[in-house]
Amino acid sequence: MDPRLVVVGSVAYDSVETPTEKADDVLGGSASHFALASQLLAPTGVVAVVGDDFHPSDLQRLVARGVDVRGLSTLPGKTFRWGGRYDEHLKERTTLFTDLNVFADFRPELPEAYRDAPYLFLANIDPDLQSAVLDQCHNPKWVGLDTMNFWIRGKRESLVKLLPRVHSLFLNDSEAYDLTGHRDVTRAAHAIQKMGTPVIVLKKGEHGSILFVKDQVYVVPALVLPKVKDPTGAGDTYAGGMAGTLARLDDTSPDALRFAAVVGTCMSSMCVESFGPDGACAADLSRLNERLEWYERQVRHPSRRL
Amino acid sequence: MDPRLVVVGSVAYDSVETPTEKADDVLGGSASHFALASQLLAPTGVVAVVGDDFHPSDLQRLVARGVDVRGLSTLPGKTFRWGGRYDEHLKERTTLFTDLNVFADFRPELPEAYRDAPYLFLANIDPDLQSAVLDQCHNPKWVGLDTMNFWIRGKRESLVKLLPRVHSLFLNDSEAYDLTGHRDVTRAAHAIQKMGTPVIVLKKGEHGSILFVKDQVYVVPALVLPKVKDPTGAGDTYAGGMAGTLARLDDTSPDALRFAAVVGTCMSSMCVESFGPDGACAADLSRLNERLEWYERQVRHPSRRL
Fold it and tell me: I need a labelling partner for B20 at 20 to 30 A (CA). Which of A76, A109, A202, B89 fits?
């Protein structure tokens, strides 16, 4: 079966230190976290590159989940590595190192079977590569884009050119500020909409997210969890849950976007409760529906007037 | 008519600088903001002190709103003054000065007509004074308490003694940390519940609030507003809207607390859109119900499963 949803991004080995755990070479990267979440909802193909040191057992994690890895190429050299350390309260993260390795020469090439996928997610990589991937696709119905300050500052022109070709832009408040000069998220979102992207997904970490869909605003708070273990990958897991839901429903209406954001939120809540990608891997539809019920108990307010 | 809700706190003159406005001697203080909000919902009596420089026009603002000011005493000297400046994005606030003036000798004395009020809010003042007020009341049905790091550090023992006498404690994450040593808000809330207060209202500013009601968690996000002018008094307005709703419904059940927190959130959204207390003063039930509808459009999610 050809994928309904394609993600291009990184497959990486992370070295993560939290107050309670420390591990090297944990399967990570934006495309891994995204696909392990989205595959539960819609057949997902990954476009990424790994080095010849990539463990068969990690490939097996993706394959066992059902992820289509035909777009995962192997190059001689080492897999992309990232290292980070969280503070004792899991609030602040320090990047210890970023070794691009084989990712430095990544030129994404989509398998023929991926090019008709109606849903496409361009995870946080060089906007020129994101553009090259989009060029290879045959008129996808929905395109999501993630980015970061590094590209907003360093490749602004390429990024701005992409915006009118994108349906939903995922970013946080500091990225929105770098892109628009507005600290106020409402003004920033409207400025980006004027640049051509109709849906802005403002990510607020532990506080949740806000969707700006044309002139509507939807607030999607995060679940309050009794215990968070490792926030790594939460944003990509959220995006994977959201895009996977849109692809599953084949619906990009405001109501579908809103429900998809809640699913993404629930999916990322499972991600952060475990170390590395174990949380997303353990998610099944029954557990996800339990989270949706939990979400309703926490967030659904009585419809009353005074 | 005797008040159903009594608030003890400060009535002050604020000097506020925002990026767009600057004014001295604006009517402020916790009890003012609280009462201007709560009076819309339930007859409210204020216990506070002002100096002999307090303008009749400011007294008139409270009286015109319907607030019972029999508990507002005047002492020779100057009214409590506070000065603060917001950064250009209204995210950070610097306190420029705090002049207690007549507030330094405040010994709250409740009018007889206030002592049977079933709802009582002890705004952020010395815990010993909060305790003295509570002692003068005849078994109130609901007691809310606000505090700050200054008292948690400086009068910890007095504050801790109060906790089992209080129904709902209002505080932010840094105050919860100071009180319990836990950065994680869930752990902090449960620790405070063990200290004797069953309901914890965790205030998160622009991100909203979280209610911990026994073993339940309710997430109450803030409205996303197109324009914020002055955040001063938002927390007290929220508490006033919440306590006023409980008193109006005469209901402290989990559902009532949840609805009351949404009303408080809507009320504080009106507060921050205007400079000083103008927003709360302009609120009427019809505008408040419009906010509740707006809140539902932003926050209410479709009840769906996968």
Answer: A202
Dig out the tokens for A71 from the structure: 């777009």
Amino acid at A84: G
- Mention every residue, 6+ apart, whose C-beta is less than 8 A from residue A95: A82, A83, A84
Contact A306 B226 (CB under 8 A): no
On chain A, the residues whose CB falls within 8 A of the CB of B288 are 306
Only one residue has tokens 């509808």, namely B293
- Residue contacts between A and B (CB atoms, under 8 Å): 110
Chain B residues near residue A285 by CB distance under 8 angstroms: 306
Per-residue pLDDT, A56: 96
How many residues are given for chain B? Answer: 306
CA distance B177 to B184: 8
What is residue A23's three-state secondary structure? strand
pTM of the model: 0.95
Give the gap in angstroms from C-alpha B136 to the nearest C-alpha of chain A.
31
Question: Would you say the ipTM is above 0.95?
Answer: no
Residue B302 has what pLDDT?
A: 81
Q: State the average pLDDT over residues A87-113.
A: 93
Across the interface, whether the CB atoms of A258 and B208 are under 8 A apart is answered no
Task: Identify the band that residue A278 occupies on the pLDDT scale cut at 50, 70 and 90.
Answer: confident
Asked if the model's pLDDT at residue A89 lies above 90, the reply is no
Rounded to the nearest angstrom, the minimum Cα separation between A186 and chain B is: 6
Interchain pair A298, B255: CB under 8 A: no
Residue A254 near chain B (CB below 8 Å): no
pLDDT tens-digit profile of B69-97?
999 999 999 999 999 999 988 888 999 99
Tokens standing for residue A305: 């007037």
Q: Which residue of B224, B286, B287 is the best one to mutate when testing the A interface, meaning the one whose CB has the most A CBs within 10 A?
A: B224
Burial class (CB in 10 A: 0-12, 13-18, 19+), B227: exposed
Cα(A21)–Cα(A41) distance, integer angstroms: 30
Q: Supply B248's token pair.
A: 């109006």
Is residue A8 within 8 A of residue A122, CB to CB? The reply is: yes
Contact between A216 and B297 using a beta-carbon 8 Å cutoff: yes
Asked whether the beta carbons of A237 and A41 are under 8 A apart, the reply is no
Burial of A153 (0-12, 13-18, 19+ CB in 10 A): exposed
Q: Are A219 and B262 in contact (CB under 8 A)?
A: no
Whether the Cβ atoms of residue A29 and residue A48 lie closer than 8 Å to each other: yes
- Among chain B residues, CA nearest to A207: B207
Kindly give the parts of chain B with pLDDT less than 50: none
Question: Mean pLDDT, chain A, as a whole number?
Answer: 96
Tell me, yes or no, if A166 comes closer than 8 A to chain B by beta carbon.
no
- pLDDT tens-digit map of A4-19: 999 999 999 999 999 9
Chain B residues close to A289, C-beta within 8 Å: 305-306
Instruction: Give me the residues paired with residue B44 across strands.
Output: B5
Chain B residues 59-118 within an 8 A CB cutoff of chain A: 88-89, 91
3-class secondary structure, B246: helix
Query: B278 CB contacts (<8 Å, ≥6 apart)?
Result: none
